[in-house]
Design goal:
Length: 188
């Protein structure tokens, strides 16, 4: 049975004593799925997030980006139709963040699950999204939506295109208006 919702936190939230395999197995194990039955699904998901060969590694042996990919694999292993991601790449360097943005789009293109992705990065929101919801602060509410009409797949050429620049500018303008309307609290 497919899980209906997967969640990726801001921090990887991995079990430090457990291997990559065991961390990804956790949601299946909680559903009573044995290690042997889960093994092929886990191998498939680890390959999709480019972690094949790291099944026996523990979190302290992994980079920040690899830990986040383990968290993504764990969220995807149940086959969710909705993936909630709370600033999953915020603490990563730009190169790793770009790679994981590309990886996430690739996974989305294969699986076509719905993603609600929280980010404070205008650039990331435009690159990943087909719709951006800008929130106003205190009380939190939808301020405005920005439609991102750019097609998929998106790649590095899109990141340097005039269309991307215009969408980033539009989103930045809406974000600025939201900050002004909400008393200028910004990302609080």
């Amino acid at each position: 049975e497919s899980g209906s919702v997967g969640f990726v936190f801001q921090e990887p939230t991995l079990l430090p004593w457990a291997s990559v395999f065991e961390n990804v197995w956790l949601p299946l194990r909680l559903r009573g799925v044995s290690r042997n039955v889960a093994a092929s699904r886990i191998a498939e998901v680890l390959a999709r997030v480019r972690l094949n060969g790291f099944e026996n590694a523990v979190p302290r042996e992994l980079s920040g980006g690899m830990k986040m990919r383990v968290s993504i694999a764990r969220a995807l292993v149940t086959g969710p139709r909705l993936l909630l991601m709370d600033e999953p790449f915020a603490a990563l360097d730009e190169i790793t963040r770009f790679r994981l943005n590309n990886d996430l789009l690739s996974l989305w293109e294969q699986e076509r699950f719905t993603v609600i992705f929280v980010t404070h990065s205008v650039f990331e929101s435009v690159f990943l999204s087909n719709r951006i919801v800008v929130m106003a602060a205190r009380p939190g509410r939808v301020f405005r939506e920005v439609e991102v009409g750019a097609g998929y797949p998106r790649d590095e050429a899109f990141r340097t295109s005039p269309e991307y620049a215009a969408l980033c500018r539009e989103t930045s303008d809406v974000l600025g208006a939201a900050m002004n309307a909400g008393g200028g609290h910004g990302g609080d």
